[in-house]
Predict the 3D structure of the following.
Amino acid sequence: MRIQHSIVIPAYNEAGRIASTLEDISSYLDTPAGQRAEWEVIVVCDGCRDATAHVAGTFKDRLPLRLLSYRNNRGKGYAVRRGVAASVGGVVAFMDADGATPVRDLARLEKPILDDQADIVIGSRQAEHANVVVGQSVCRRILGRAFSWHTRLALGLDLRDTQCGFKVFRGDIARTLFATLRLDGFAFDLELLAEARELGLRVLERGVEWRERPGSTVHPLRDGIRMLRAAWEIRSRLRSRRRLGRGYLPLSTVSAERYCDGCPI
């Protein structure tokens, strides 16, 4: 039977948090909404040095689970690319291993895609109908808003929340779009959305439920500075491509496996 939905979960040393997320997905797939489709859940263990792979593996009898694991930590962007390239679903979503946004929000976010009104729908903590149950610290909120403002300035992305870790794609577009990306770290969302705009893809922003989870591996200042630099690098690359008249390849000509040549397993 054809798989309609793929859920990609990038994970780096998430042994203490991923079980509750997989439990939530398992419960959702037992509901009438979850039972209406065929699923695959792809956990990408990004050079984990703890028991993440073992904890995830304990769910193989309860979930249509695929576990991808490789030796060296490459970054969240790389992990998501690996998972998306391995996916086969007609709709592909990626979500954070901490389950900050519950999987049940997928049904609402995928509807514009199923109705052919969007190619990509990004979850947002700032958009209408967002429900932030447990908020971030004051420091993280201030830095997050400053980063959002800077992103609009650097890349011209008319989006309020580029970094929420819950995004949904039409499957074929996800696999070909991700194959064009270069950034391995947390700034991959910016590159993803900037390239989607270059391609003229339809991107919608929808509010989601979200709650802060303890144990994040994101350092707001260190990683924030890296993402600010990455935003200007993306801007420079796009401007250079336009200036040199190097148009974008149509999605149909991009190999979904191109970036993965020689990937360490």
